Amino acid sequence: MKVYTTVLSLLAVKASLATTPLQPRSTSLSSSDIQTLQRLILDSNRLPIAKRFATYFQSTKHSKRDLKSELSANTDAAAQESGLAAWLALFLGTIESWTYKAPVSRVAEIQEDSSTWPNAKKKKIRYGPYRLPPISEKNLESYLLKQQGLAVSLQAGVTKPSTQDHVLLDVVAGLEFDDGTTAEVKDGAWLHHAVLVNVGPGVVDTDCSSPYYDYFFENGNEKEHVLYANQSSLSKSGYHLRQKDVLFLNTEVMNMDEKEKWVWLTLNYDYIDHVPAGYKEAKVMWMSIGPNRCASIFSNTVEPNPFGESNITALLQPKKTVLSEFSFPWVAPKDGYIMGMNGHLHNGGTEIEVFHNGESICKSSPKYGPGGASHMKRQMGPVGGVDYNNTSIDNIVAHNGCWADPPRRFKKGDKVYIRSDYDFTKHPGTKNGEGQLDSIMGMIGTLIAFGN
Question: Which residues, at least 6 apart from 391, have a Cβ–Cβ distance to it below 8 Å?
């Protein structure tokens, strides 16, 4: 996430100077946006993978060298280069998608419905379409990320629920085909993730206090509701979107078979079409295991975790079959309230525990079932032809969270962090193309509101 939000902060400056909001585009990025990204990539001389990929995409012959084997799993360079590879796949995959002729949607892009929230509206917006390549197709994503059937994209200036200042209460993602029918795992369509980043002149990132952008929504194939308010609480809140704010949408969608598919991402918004008096400005603060979320991708050093030696590699693969891993602490920049939280683990995960100044305040546990929705990716098989597609194991189908009612108070300087537990003897983990345990995640989205 930090890889491309670094770039979004640059693009946000352009957006903040605009006199009118950016309009939805038929293509994902403008030519000037592309030039900005290209310069950033090609000027990153401290990252040799950038120059290697620049040469690769300017040539007609594609190198068959296994880039993954070049990256030591326990070095600073590996963390930096794998992050840049992910960004390149996102950026170049977006451009590649423009070369295909997309089908026309047979249902309306925007559909209105009645909301269950008081004084709120409900709107479903369809974004896309996105081409899901056959799993045998060799393309940019399969080369860069070593994953089959994957489609990644980044769209700027996507449609918001309202053209004026408004408050989001609830957002949830889905996948549909051109006729509006739901695209599920049984149909060979898998939503790896959909991420919304808010970009604007007055926007501030909750995690790192960075200006111009805020990463405020993420959904995977679990398709769980992201709530910015507690409907039963007397404390009113919501995520505030301003008229001049611009939404960036990052999607990663996966095909599960050999049939090419086109799908649309849907986002269902419950929102209030103005900013009511007394509504706290809710923000989502993300904590995750792995590198410090606030560290620069161009740094030559990796900050040591204050909780000691890590049990995962720089590529987030587990070193043990049973492990616990702590996040870097989030340090509150000002006073506020914790209102709720929910976790996200990969297969093998058993629990995420949240701590506030050392005190346990939430235990978020996954539920397993067949089929499922864990943050899985289909992996490219090794030379021997084995495809570890992970279809025979149970996956995470849901994740319980915690509400704080009344909201829990925190002070400037307080520390909040998580511990993610994995036990692969209880729940088999997803394997990569070499038959090794794949990368894992441990992440909590925490709903907070600043103020007294």
Answer: none
